[in-house]
Amino acid sequence: MLAQTKLTKKEWEMVEVKVTPDKMEILDMMNKGYDDIHIVIYKIKSLLSFLKLENTNDVDGYIYEQFFKNIINDMLKQNGSINLPTFIPPTKIVKQKVKKSDVIRITHNMCNIIQSDTYEYILLQFAERIFSSKFESSKKKQSNTKGWKFYYFTLYKIYQNNIPNTNKIVASFIQSILEYFGSEINLTEFIYESKNFIEKNENLFRYKNITLYEHQKRIVSICKNHLSVPKLILYIAPTGTGKTLTPILLSNAYKVIYVCAAKHVGLSLAKSAISIQKKIAFAYGCLTPSDVKLHYFSAKEYTRNTKSGGIHKVDNSVGDKVEIIICDILSYLPAMNYMLMFNQSTEIISYFDEPTIFLDYPLHDSHTIIRKNWSENVIPNVILSSATLPKEDEIPNTIRDFKMKFEDSIVISIESHECSKSIPLITKDGYIAIPHFQASTLIEVQEIAGHILENPTILRYLDIGECVSFIREFENTTFCKENEELSLLTSIDHIDKIELVNIKLHYLHILKFIDDETFQYIINILSNNRKLYIQPINKTSSFGKKTESIGPGSIVTSSSTSSQTSKPLIRVSSMSSDINTIEKQLFTTQMQTTKGSSDFAVCVTTRDAYTLNDGPTIFITNEVERVAQIYITQSNIPSVIMDDISGKIDFNQTVISRIEILEKALDDVNNKRLKSNVDTSKMEKRMARESDSDNAIKSNCVEKITRELSSLSASIKTVHLPEKYIPNKPSHINHWIGDVKLDYVPFTSDIDEEIVEKIMKLSISQIWKMLLLMGIGVFSNKHNSDEYTEIMKMLADSQRLYLIIATSDYIYGTNYQFCNCYISKNMELTQEKVIQAIGRVGRNNLQQNYSIRFRSDEHINLLMYPEVNKQEAINMNLLFQTDDCV
Q: What would the pLDDT profile of 4-54 be if each residue is shown by its tens digit?
């Protein structure tokens, strides 16, 4: 993924695959966003928009009469004690004023309207839930566990979406309900329930309008307002908030050179750009501008295939139509020179995505290339984009160099702290990491709070439940009552301000100014009530003794309190067939106390697999092979099964080797026959006629090889693993946690036989093949197979892998959606690399169950505390320098 190499045929094919309709809608918004930064995509439509009718009072009244009047009347009748003085429904609707064509359209769509998910129906559904949960009618004896305030908050937020053409009478009814029940609202109670009301409220995400992120709006505004001014933009925003798509926005006014070391990220942008017919080019593994390749949309001069009519051969030297050129680090200068052949330098933006990649190393082979790129760059508009980019005051040499090189240039920083979701950090002992528990003294806690306020990208990793617990206890203290400016309602004084980011900022504000006595008092209370991230479950193991799982990652007998260190498991190819003995050893050698486990939820192929839900997991480690071996060993696959699989793999490998030899022989024969068919001299033609007997022999040879190839392909044996050993398949769950009822569905892999067959044909180690059968893929250069990597990327993109094991360098190249992440211990990481690693989780627009699980608390501290002498900043000051200016 990080190789600076030319595109393969499969990579070319990948960018031609169309994106999903949902993403297409977003891309279309991005394409139009440069001209209208306030553009909105409404996820739901009003009934009027659904019917595509003209918005008039008469049509509005008729639609109310036909579809909404009875619903509202029923609500009011069932709750007669409620008086809504501000809601005055129309007394009479004059049908004759509505066009006959409109009436026909409404009548013909009656069934579709009733079943549709239109805005007014959604509003009325939540209004009805408020009524039914607050005032239990005789028809509805069961109480609603979520409570009327949950539905009130949801209705209030959804109503703020301001969907165009909303029925005015329904809107008046909703406003009346919000006003009526608003008098009973306690903002403090709403804030205390923010975990359920906001974070776990899927309705807010489902119906939320789609707009440009604030950082995207700002970068567009800056580029518009300083169109001809040389500029260096430091673009800092959290991972998964659309930075990679920002070049599509900018390409409406500039030509863009998009530079990214991670090929997969660049190809993802290419796929998106091609989907909306942007004209792009590729510069991968290029040494000169002549190596640049144009996509068909960008081609100006080409020849067509006489049979298919499609583009056959492109003249890559003519690139004046190119809007975005996508390149790797090695190819930046050739890409720049290529674009300068057709454009003025002031018309171009160089967009460096993750420019600090490889800068966490004091020395790296890429440093020379990075220095050369910056030194020889002549493009006066540069964007450095990263969630962890050093700030202006940390890279004075780089900024000074840019200003010296480009006269009258400006430097602008864009920082975003988008925080629409919470992704908890889990300690090695299984607890949620939060600033007030992360240090032993208030001074250190305040240092952490100040650091997060300076680096708001970390806000999303503060668990909202833990923040609220601290705020709740603080509100009851004398210190809070004496310092009104620190009270909750001073900071958040309206329901519109009840957002995750505001609550977290208020929490940090308290930490900055709280006194030590109050702080220690709160910590004592919270410590006594602190719980593991995942609560224990009970199960009867297969060898008959009752066991208790103390949070995922530890299993104890009900009478045991002693702890021991796990014994390493190293055998891979063959395990003991006595599965019960192994299982018993696995339980008894990892006993932990009820206060938590130092190996929280680490057995992800066995007893802890059930803790991983909603989507794939990534395990980041620099010891890929060791982790792979451990996970195969922990699975306790009996030797009879392992031997059978190994035997089939060995047999298939022998067959595959024979197939490769025959295919090469077949190619040689065909190439010779092809060569003999080209135009030749008279002498050569005569000699060819004399060799008819040789041609007959060759034909027989081809036929024989073809038959043998067909026979060999048919002899390849199907390889599969019993579901008991595939994490989170039904039989696997039953084996490890029994019939315990979970309130979620554990995530599992979806690897079909076709993929298994492809992997089994590859010349890679057995360990990678075994892992695939378990739903586990690897991003590493250990397997030395580009084809394997391509298959893993495809499976990761479609979320069909249960787990991906990746080295730390590969985090920049995995912009897939993960729901859980493990950060292995014994890794040399910088603060930036920790943020990049945990940024692999929660990259989609949904609020799911996320977690970052650390195997070493040192890495959490690395994230929480200010980092002195950042290696990335040091290297930027050294490498982002122009030789002539030094």
A: 678 887 788 888 888 888 889 899 999 999 999 999 999 899 999 998 888
Q: How far apart are CA 592 and CA 532, in angstroms?
A: 13
Torsion sign across C-alpha atoms 634, 640, 645, 649:
positive
Collapsed DSSP state (helix, strand, coil) of residue 522: helix
User: 826-835 burial by CB neighbour count: b if 16+ within 10 A, else e?
Assistant: ebebbbbbbb
- Tokens 């009244």 belong to 61
Whether residue 69 lies inside any domain: the answer is: yes
Q: Which residues pair with 805 in a beta bridge?
A: 619, 778
Nearest to 174, CA basis, from 114, 117, 126: 126
Q: Which two tokens stand for residue 76?
A: 């009011």
Contact between 401 and 882 under an 8 Å Cβ cutoff? The reply is: yes
Domain co-membership, 32 together with 75 = no
| Closest C-alpha to 503, from 518, 482, 489, 522 | 489
> In sequence order, which residues have a C-beta less than 8 Å from that of residue 49 and are 6 or more positions away?
163, 164, 165
Q: How many domains does the chain have?
A: 4
Q: Which of 238, 295, 191, 174 is nearest to 503 (CA)?
A: 191
> Is 580 among the domain residues?
no
Cα–Cα distances in Å, from 440 out to 331, 445, 520? 49, 8, 10
d(CA 555, CA 534): 13
Residues 6 or more apart whose CB falls under 8 angstroms from that of 813 comprise 1, 2, 261, 262, 263, 264, 265, 779
| CA atoms 868, 871, 873, 878: torsion sign | positive
Residue-number span of the structural domain to which 459 is assigned: 435-528
Domain assignment present for residue 542? The answer is no
Cα(494)–Cα(504) distance, rounded to whole angstroms? 16
Side by side, the strands of the sheet bearing 410-415 are 293-294, 280-283, 324-327, 255-259, 348-353, 381-385, 231-236, 410-415
- For residues 407 and 405, give the distance between their C-alpha atoms in angstroms, rounded to a whole number: 6
3-state SS track over 37-55: CCCEECCCCCHHHHHCCCC
Of 528, 547, 564, the position where a domain reaches its end is 528
E-assigned strands of 728-791? Answer: 776-779
Tokens matching residue 402: 């840019």
Residue 831 · residue 867 · CB < 8 Å: yes
Length of the chain: 886
Domain limit, last residue, from 186, 208, 230: 208
Q: How far apart are CA 822 and CA 838, in angstroms?
A: 9
pLDDT, one tens digit per residue, over 356-410 is 988 988 999 899 999 999 999 999 999 999 988 999 999 999 999 999 999 999 9
- State the amino acid at position 143 in one-letter form: S
In angstroms, the CA 520 to CA 879 distance is 46
